[in-house]
Structure to design on (34 residues):
């Protein structure tokens, strides 16, 4: 794994999880998107 993968994969996972939490309304201050 190169240096790029070390940053790209965790960033993608973080954005995916954040998107899921936002979609189901688990982030305080943000209404559920779905």
């Amino acid at each position: 794994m190169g240096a790029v993968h070390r940053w790209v994969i965790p960033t993608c996972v973080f954005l995916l999880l954040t998107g899921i939490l936002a979609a189901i309304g688990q982030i305080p201050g943000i209404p559920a998107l779905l």
Summary: The mean pLDDT is 89. The chain has one helix and no strands. The chain has one domain: 1-33.
